Amino acid sequence: DAGITQSPRYKITETGRQVTLMCHQTWSHSYMFWYRQDLGHGLRLIYYSAAADITDKGEVPDGYVVSRSKTENFPLTLESATRSQTSVYFCASRGHVGVSYEQYFGPGTRLTVT
Amino acid sequence: EDQVTQSPEALRLQEGESSSLNCSYTVSGLRGLFWYRQDPGKGPEFLFTLYSAGEEKEKERLKATLTKKESFLHITAPKPEDSATYLCAVQATLSSGSARQLTFGSGTQLTVLP
Questions:
Q1: CATH number, domain at B38?
Q2: Residue B9 burial (C-beta neighbours within 10 Å; 0-12, 13-18, 19+)
Q3: A81-105: per-residue pLDDT in tens?
Q4: pLDDT, tens digit, 9 for 90 and up, residues A21-73
Protein backbone atom coordinates (compact mmCIF):
# COMPACT_ATOMS: atom_id res chain seq x y z
CA ASP A 1 0.00 0.00 0.00
CA ALA A 2 2.73 2.48 -1.00
CA GLY A 3 0.37 5.01 -2.65
CA ILE A 4 2.56 7.79 -3.96
CA THR A 5 6.27 7.99 -3.34
CA GLN A 6 8.96 10.53 -4.17
CA SER A 7 12.71 10.22 -4.39
CA PRO A 8 15.05 11.47 -3.27
CA ARG A 9 13.54 13.01 -0.14
CA TYR A 10 16.42 15.47 0.17
CA LYS A 11 18.79 16.74 -2.48
CA ILE A 12 21.55 19.31 -2.54
CA THR A 13 22.90 20.32 -5.92
CA GLU A 14 24.97 23.08 -7.44
CA THR A 15 23.84 25.84 -9.74
CA GLY A 16 23.86 24.73 -13.36
CA ARG A 17 23.57 21.02 -12.69
CA GLN A 18 20.77 18.88 -14.01
CA VAL A 19 18.67 17.11 -11.40
CA THR A 20 15.70 14.78 -11.70
CA LEU A 21 13.06 14.26 -9.05
CA MET A 22 11.14 11.02 -9.24
CA CYS A 23 7.48 10.34 -8.53
CA HIS A 24 5.77 6.95 -8.52
CA GLN A 25 2.13 6.08 -7.76
CA THR A 26 0.54 2.66 -7.35
CA TRP A 27 -3.12 3.67 -7.78
CA SER A 28 -3.13 3.74 -11.61
CA HIS A 29 -4.38 7.33 -11.38
CA SER A 30 -4.67 9.09 -14.73
CA TYR A 31 -3.63 12.52 -13.55
CA MET A 32 -0.31 13.42 -11.98
CA PHE A 33 0.97 16.81 -10.85
CA TRP A 34 4.12 18.57 -9.75
CA TYR A 35 3.95 21.47 -7.30
CA ARG A 36 6.50 23.58 -5.53
CA GLN A 37 5.88 25.02 -2.08
CA ASP A 38 7.60 28.19 -0.95
CA LEU A 39 6.97 30.45 2.03
CA GLY A 40 4.61 33.22 1.03
CA HIS A 41 3.49 31.50 -2.17
CA GLY A 42 1.77 28.35 -1.04
CA LEU A 43 1.56 25.47 -3.48
CA ARG A 44 2.11 26.40 -7.11
CA LEU A 45 1.55 24.04 -10.03
CA ILE A 46 4.59 23.42 -12.23
CA TYR A 47 3.36 20.77 -14.70
CA TYR A 48 0.64 18.18 -14.88
CA SER A 49 -0.20 15.14 -16.93
CA ALA A 50 -3.63 13.79 -17.82
CA ALA A 51 -2.31 10.43 -19.02
CA ALA A 52 0.83 8.78 -20.34
CA ASP A 53 2.45 10.93 -23.03
CA ILE A 54 0.13 13.89 -22.27
CA THR A 55 1.61 16.77 -20.30
CA ASP A 56 0.78 20.44 -19.88
CA LYS A 57 2.21 23.52 -18.23
CA GLY A 58 1.03 24.88 -14.93
CA GLU A 59 1.58 28.26 -13.33
CA VAL A 60 5.39 28.16 -13.02
CA PRO A 61 6.87 25.82 -15.71
CA ASP A 62 10.00 27.74 -16.71
CA GLY A 63 13.22 25.84 -16.06
CA TYR A 64 11.48 22.47 -15.66
CA VAL A 65 10.91 19.53 -17.96
CA VAL A 66 8.58 16.56 -17.46
CA SER A 67 7.88 13.31 -19.19
CA ARG A 68 5.41 10.51 -18.66
CA SER A 69 6.14 7.34 -20.56
CA LYS A 70 4.34 5.13 -18.01
CA THR A 71 1.14 5.84 -16.11
CA GLU A 72 2.78 5.26 -12.73
CA ASN A 73 5.84 7.50 -13.12
CA PHE A 74 6.13 11.26 -13.57
CA PRO A 75 9.71 12.54 -13.28
CA LEU A 76 10.50 16.24 -13.01
CA THR A 77 13.83 17.47 -14.38
CA LEU A 78 15.55 20.74 -13.66
CA GLU A 79 17.75 21.10 -16.72
CA SER A 80 20.11 23.69 -15.26
CA ALA A 81 19.32 24.31 -11.61
CA THR A 82 19.18 27.85 -10.24
CA ARG A 83 19.07 29.09 -6.65
CA SER A 84 15.49 30.27 -7.20
CA GLN A 85 14.52 26.62 -7.67
CA THR A 86 15.41 25.86 -4.05
CA SER A 87 12.07 24.67 -2.73
CA VAL A 88 10.03 21.73 -1.52
CA TYR A 89 8.58 19.79 -4.43
CA PHE A 90 5.40 17.74 -4.15
CA CYS A 91 4.02 15.22 -6.55
CA ALA A 92 0.29 14.46 -6.52
CA SER A 93 -2.16 12.26 -8.38
CA ARG A 94 -5.89 11.82 -8.84
CA GLY A 95 -8.34 9.69 -10.75
CA HIS A 96 -9.74 10.56 -14.19
CA VAL A 97 -12.71 12.78 -15.00
CA GLY A 98 -15.93 11.52 -13.51
CA VAL A 99 -14.19 10.25 -10.39
CA SER A 100 -13.69 12.45 -7.36
CA TYR A 101 -11.35 15.36 -8.04
CA GLU A 102 -9.28 15.38 -4.89
CA GLN A 103 -5.55 15.02 -5.30
CA TYR A 104 -3.33 12.83 -3.15
CA PHE A 105 0.15 14.06 -2.38
CA GLY A 106 3.51 12.42 -1.93
CA PRO A 107 5.85 13.17 0.99
CA GLY A 108 7.85 15.79 -0.89
CA THR A 109 11.44 16.37 -1.96
CA ARG A 110 13.40 19.18 -0.32
CA LEU A 111 15.78 20.56 -2.94
CA THR A 112 18.57 22.98 -2.16
CA VAL A 113 20.51 24.61 -4.99
CA THR A 114 23.81 26.12 -3.86
CA GLU B 1 -8.01 34.55 -12.34
CA ASP B 2 -8.91 32.28 -9.45
CA GLN B 3 -8.00 33.60 -6.02
CA VAL B 4 -7.96 31.95 -2.60
CA THR B 5 -7.28 33.84 0.63
CA GLN B 6 -7.00 32.09 3.97
CA SER B 7 -7.24 33.74 7.36
CA PRO B 8 -5.82 33.99 9.87
CA GLU B 9 -2.28 33.13 8.79
CA ALA B 10 -1.62 31.63 12.21
CA LEU B 11 -3.86 30.68 15.10
CA ARG B 12 -2.98 29.54 18.60
CA LEU B 13 -5.66 27.83 20.66
CA GLN B 14 -5.80 26.24 24.05
CA GLU B 15 -6.86 22.61 24.06
CA GLY B 16 -10.66 22.53 24.03
CA GLU B 17 -11.01 26.08 22.68
CA SER B 18 -13.16 25.86 19.55
CA SER B 19 -12.57 28.18 16.59
CA SER B 20 -12.91 28.54 12.82
CA LEU B 21 -10.54 28.98 9.91
CA ASN B 22 -11.66 30.99 6.90
CA CYS B 23 -11.11 30.44 3.18
CA SER B 24 -12.38 33.19 0.89
CA TYR B 25 -12.38 32.49 -2.82
CA THR B 26 -13.04 34.07 -6.18
CA VAL B 27 -13.64 31.78 -9.14
CA SER B 28 -15.68 32.05 -12.30
CA GLY B 29 -17.53 28.84 -11.60
CA LEU B 30 -16.77 26.58 -8.65
CA ARG B 31 -16.23 22.92 -9.45
CA GLY B 32 -15.07 22.05 -5.94
CA LEU B 33 -13.43 23.40 -2.80
CA PHE B 34 -10.89 21.21 -1.03
CA TRP B 35 -9.45 21.23 2.48
CA TYR B 36 -6.11 19.64 3.25
CA ARG B 37 -4.07 19.20 6.42
CA GLN B 38 -0.28 19.46 6.24
CA ASP B 39 2.05 18.38 9.02
CA PRO B 40 5.64 19.72 9.10
CA GLY B 41 7.88 17.89 6.66
CA LYS B 42 4.99 16.00 5.04
CA GLY B 43 2.75 16.30 2.03
CA PRO B 44 -0.78 17.68 2.26
CA GLU B 45 -3.36 15.16 3.43
CA PHE B 46 -6.84 15.34 1.93
CA LEU B 47 -9.68 16.14 4.35
CA PHE B 48 -12.84 17.27 2.52
CA THR B 49 -14.35 18.23 -0.80
CA LEU B 50 -17.31 20.62 -0.93
CA TYR B 51 -19.18 21.12 -4.19
CA SER B 52 -22.07 23.51 -3.59
CA ALA B 53 -23.14 26.29 -1.24
CA GLY B 54 -24.82 24.99 1.87
CA GLU B 55 -22.90 21.73 1.87
CA GLU B 56 -21.27 20.57 5.10
CA LYS B 57 -18.89 17.71 5.86
CA GLU B 58 -17.57 16.42 9.16
CA LYS B 59 -14.66 14.33 10.30
CA GLU B 60 -13.99 13.87 14.00
CA ARG B 61 -13.50 17.39 15.44
CA LEU B 62 -13.53 19.09 12.04
CA LYS B 63 -16.50 20.43 10.12
CA ALA B 64 -16.23 22.19 6.78
CA THR B 65 -18.95 24.47 5.42
CA LEU B 66 -19.34 26.29 2.12
CA THR B 67 -21.06 29.47 0.95
CA LYS B 68 -20.88 31.17 -2.44
CA LYS B 69 -17.89 33.26 -1.34
CA GLU B 70 -16.13 31.38 1.43
CA SER B 71 -15.61 28.20 3.32
CA PHE B 72 -15.06 27.67 7.02
CA LEU B 73 -13.24 24.88 8.77
CA HIS B 74 -14.69 24.65 12.26
CA ILE B 75 -12.59 22.93 14.88
CA THR B 76 -14.51 21.79 17.93
CA ALA B 77 -12.67 21.12 21.21
CA PRO B 78 -9.29 20.83 19.48
CA LYS B 79 -6.47 18.65 20.79
CA PRO B 80 -2.71 19.18 20.41
CA GLU B 81 -2.64 16.56 17.66
CA ASP B 82 -4.83 18.87 15.55
CA SER B 83 -1.84 21.21 15.25
CA ALA B 84 -0.95 21.51 11.56
CA THR B 85 -1.23 23.84 8.61
CA TYR B 86 -4.65 23.71 6.97
CA LEU B 87 -4.78 24.42 3.25
CA CYS B 88 -7.77 25.37 1.15
CA ALA B 89 -7.91 24.95 -2.63
CA VAL B 90 -10.50 25.66 -5.31
CA GLN B 91 -11.10 24.15 -8.69
CA ALA B 92 -12.95 26.19 -11.28
CA THR B 93 -15.08 25.04 -14.18
CA LEU B 94 -13.98 26.41 -17.53
CA SER B 95 -16.44 27.69 -20.14
CA SER B 96 -15.80 24.48 -22.09
CA GLY B 97 -17.11 22.50 -19.13
CA SER B 98 -13.73 21.04 -18.26
CA ALA B 99 -11.99 21.79 -14.98
CA ARG B 100 -9.11 24.14 -14.30
CA GLN B 101 -6.36 22.87 -12.05
CA LEU B 102 -6.38 23.58 -8.32
CA THR B 103 -5.53 26.99 -6.90
CA PHE B 104 -4.27 26.84 -3.32
CA GLY B 105 -4.36 29.37 -0.53
CA SER B 106 -1.29 30.00 1.62
CA GLY B 107 -2.73 28.12 4.58
CA THR B 108 -3.51 28.70 8.25
CA GLN B 109 -0.94 27.40 10.72
CA LEU B 110 -2.87 26.07 13.73
CA THR B 111 -1.19 25.43 17.07
CA VAL B 112 -3.18 23.80 19.86
CA LEU B 113 -1.57 24.15 23.26
CA PRO B 114 -2.10 21.49 25.94
A1: 2.60.40.10
A2: exposed
A3: 999 999 999 999 997 666 568 899 9
A4: 999 999 889 999 999 999 878 899 999 999 999 999 999 999 999 999 999 99
* C-alpha count within 13 angstroms, C-beta hemisphere, residue B85: 19
CA dist., res. B96 & res. B79, Å (int): 44
How far off is chain A from B1, nearest CA to CA, in Å? 12
Q: Considering only residues 59 to 88 of chain A, which have any Cβ-Cβ distance to chain B shorter than 8 Å?
A: none
Residue A1 — very low, low, confident or very high, per pLDDT cuts 50/70/90?
A: low
CB pairs under 8 A between A and B: 48
Query: Under an 8 A CB cutoff, do A42 and B99 touch?
Result: no
Higher-confidence residue of A96 and B41: namely B41
Structural domain that includes position B23: 3-113
pLDDT of residue B6: 97
Question: CB-CB: which of B45, B99, B101 is closest to A58?
Answer: B101
Cα–Cα dist A12/A113, whole Å: 6
Chain B, residues 47-106, CB within 8 A of chain A, namely 49, 87, 89, 91, 98-99, 101-102, 104-106
Domains and CATH numbers, chain A: 14-99+103-107 (2.60.40.10)
